[in-house]
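*** Residues and shapes ***
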Amino acid sequence: MERIRCIIQYDGTKYAGYQIQANGRTVQEELEKVLTKMHKGRKIRVTASGRTDSGVHAVGQVIHFDTELKIPMDNWKRALATMLPADITVTQAEPVSSDFHAQYDTTGKEYRYFIWNSKEPNIFKRHYYYHIKKELDITAMREACRYIEGEHDFTSFCSLKSDVKGSKVRTIRQAFVEQKGEELIFQFKGSGFLYNMVRIIVGTLLEVGHHEREPADILSIIEEQNREFAGKTAPPHGLFLWKVDYE
């Protein structure tokens, strides 16, 4: 038996999220369907670094699975990419030790959120960018990002639907907003993220960018440890799981 780790990309537009669920097509379902076919009907379970919500995309999602098939690594990548739907692909496949775990061995993740900030929409980016017509104050949002960085209890930035039982303390190593013309790219690197955390942070930063809040308000929102004090949850289609880190 061999354990294989893959880096996968997917366009989440037509999926009800990554994780298998009773209602709705999911990325995990498509992966396991292909692997089961390759294993002549034997069910293969795939483990990911974490789940992504309906409409959320991934550039660097990491999965692992166990197999008894003896296939060269290059062929694994090619076979999976060929058999998967066009909106899911495998960019890397490699053997790992039997104790590697895609979820529990992570040391950090990077998420990016994309916004199209223009009076006119860009129809070719509509599935991947959140369109905001009103001009945003980039300087104010960058200042607010500095208050997000560091180790904090991010309860205020966690969905009330979260099933996290333990501590909601996380460390954000980098929070930044980059501007490229009409494009705004929010980048977040951290030890881990709570349910809807990035989307709630982005929604709050947008309120800062619209001068509905002051940058320093981030501090009091964190201190309150109450979801009601943070901003709206930004829509899912602008969010990408960009990279997953391991030792």
